[in-house]
Amino acid sequence: MHGARLILADPDEATRREIREAVQRYGYLVVGSVGDGRSAAQLIFQREPEAAVISWQLPLRSGLEVARVVEEQMVCAVVLTAEELNWFVLEEAREAGVQALLPKPLTEQVLIPALEIAISTFRRYREVALQNRKLREELETRRLVERAKGLLMQTRGWSEAEAYAFLRRASMNRGLPLRRVARAVLEGHLGT
Question: How far apart are CA 71 and CA 98, in angstroms?
Answer without folding.
Answer: 7
